[in-house]
Amino acid sequence: MIVDGSGREVLGGGGVLPVDIASLSTELRRLWEGASEADGAAVTRACARNLIALCAAGPAAEAADDALVAVATEHPARAFLVVATPGPADRLEASLTAHCVVRPGRRHVCCEQVTLAIGSAARRRAASAIVPLLVPDLPVFVWITGGVDFDDPALERLLDVADRLVFDSRACPDPARTLVDLVHTERNDRWSPADLEWARLEPWREAVAALFDEPAAASLAGHLDRVVVEHGADAIVGAALLAGWIVDRAESARAADAPGERARVEAGDGAGETAAAAVVLTPVPGEGVRRVGLEAQHPDGRLEVALAENGRALVLSLTAADACALPARRPLDPAPLADLVGRLVAEAVPDELYERALLRAATWLGGTTPD
Amino acid sequence: MTPAIPATGVFREGLAREEAPPPCGLVIFGATGDLARRKLLPALWTLSRSGLLPARFAIVGVARGGLDDAAFAAEMKAAVAEHGRTPLDAAAWDAFATGLRYVPGEFGDPATFDRVKAVLAELDATRGTAGNRLFYFATPPSFAATLFERLDAAGLLDEVDGAFARVIVEKPFGRDLDSARALNAAALAVADERQIFRIDHYLGKETVQNILVFRFANAIFEPLWNHAYVDHVQITVGESIGVEGRGKFYEEAGTLRDIVQNHLLQLVALTAMEPPVAFDADAVRDEKIKVLRAIPVPNAREVTLTTVRGQYDAGATAGADVAGYRSEPGVAPDSATETYVALKLSIDNWRWAGTPFYVRAGKRLPKRVTEIAITFKDVPHAFFGRNGGAPAARAPGGGAGPAANVLALRIQPEEGISLRFGSKVPGSRLDVEPVKMDFLYGRSFGVEPPEAYERLLLDAFLGDSTLFIRRDEVEAAWGLVTAVHRGWADQATPAFPNYEAGTWGPAAADALLARDGRAWRRP
């Protein structure tokens, strides 16, 4: 048995299997037949989605390769890794690998991966090689590890068949521009965007929700006057998304309290004002989101979630009438790339909460106007 | 006082945990026993590490032993280290252990409950548990009525200012219909049905819940799920182990009480029930009880014709010689206790009339397996060759032929679903060969499913009793089982032991199906 660096069995000879592009479909079938014969027993594989990663050569490709295999462990997939390589512009080479998670006595999840090394002029051809190999009736996730370029012919072609575009706003050269582009790009209800930064915010959203679980805080939800998010330079989008989500949720609470009232949103320089709350995004030293402070005046209350213990915990605090002492600490485990991607490919339906937060964030950061 | 409802506010929408359980103090009676050590504390620890426990939470252990808080915490830490599926983390355990308390005492002594009450009041003040209580009876069933009575006398079942007081009761709920009714009466004299959570951990298993998902989330199976298309249903709950040192307990229980009354009849109900109008406690349980009520209670003659009991003799399982039941510690040398039961059940309703459900459960069978197998009828007109489903291929007397479609839902181990169907054998003839299409959970989802107790404890915190047993279900199941016991009492005891350990049960069980032209599956 040949095992990769993460302890997964590698089928198909223990390495990449160079394949003629025209024969990819045949070779995929042969790969599994060969694995069964070598093993002496049938190899069972499961597939619940198609995953396509677009990345540059080098460390980005290595990270994406590792992440794809790990993601497929929990989300069985046919995976494609499209690596933009330096060198001949018309280069288009394919290789195949298959991985199985091995647990005592048996293989659990097996997935197959097609890796395409492509030159700058072969991007559209690469997409044309992938599309017929997509497993029918299963959702298609396109993951871009670098900046999102909607003029990229490969991306353009793949988005025709995609259900979700996964990207990382932190990796975009101009994240605010990317958010605005996302808001304005015609999607025709085909695909929806998903930002790794949104997945990184999950512990923060859980912590804020935990604060509002407290009965003493529940009545403050519809009465927030001020939302402050402190963030490192890398997390301006994260801060805006988090603030956008809080304001959106606060408006929902307000609407529940007073049906018919709709919030007013105004653009500002890194901040916005709504009928529900003023939003302040404050850059501070460090990385990522650092602190969220929420204030309400009528009724009076303050809530806070702050990073602590060198980023290993979130500390919650609540000051309000009748507030009990809170279990104040929530562990914050760093989320590996594969976990973040895995959360965003768990389902293909649009994440309406994210999209509403995106709209607000794009408004605040890019000056666009929401519909 | 804090509302006892789960937090489901707008900020929870879209998060992994859309409902947050309210603050709660959990009191475990029998806290140093096997169940608490092997299942409950490890489950609570995993829930804690997953962030799924209520935000303000504490555990009070109650048992006879003279421990103090620190000694109890140390015992529980050792139990979690030994039995937990989530690794122990020293710092996190220390934080968890600050919410552990221990109250020594007898369950019949009112002073014990005064001490429990005082500790709960202290926890309300110091840990904000808000007056919400969940009592877990991890005790022998004989204590249940006393515990209900004492809790009530201490005022601990009162729900004041919106706080909740719930009780989880472990199976068995009684040992026959009369005792089950008496226990229910004792419980309902002091608590409302919605406060009582009767636990059968089988219902917490992912694959048991998936029976409903499989049936009601897929449009292709339900139209076939009836007497018009299904020839018969077989449900097997097999264990390869013996009584494992529980001989004394098993002498009192037997397989009919231990497995059939609860696990097996629950599987029958989930397999046969109509679609509920919603996945909520009343809707699901309303449909299950209709199935249990549609199973005719057998008279003595019917018991003779439709039931088989067995007891294992010495034999071999998994390559090792094993002793017979009567040689197990705590078992009488002339024991008449059954370690195997097979029943032919009919469900007299519109959907299932005429379709038998054959169920069996036993110890020291060749393997540990729980499965539900739906055998479909043969095609009405077969014109292919060998194995083509022609009536000539059927067993004498009726039943589906060897090429009949079989849909098997495997509950454990190797959880999954398989479908047997006919396929053309390559060649110039139109011969048909049965082939099997398998779906295995473990190979499709790389994550470990939660333990049954994790799911059920979380549901109890949230007040969701969908996966717990209602009073009427308990009594309907006992009504059936008690009738079988009475029928057996009127018969001569079979010549026990009557099956060899490591085999699929007594010959009479094979004859039960052979009379209908059918045979047991080899799971």
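qc> Confidence is low (pLDDT under 50) at residues 260-274 of chain A.
qc> done
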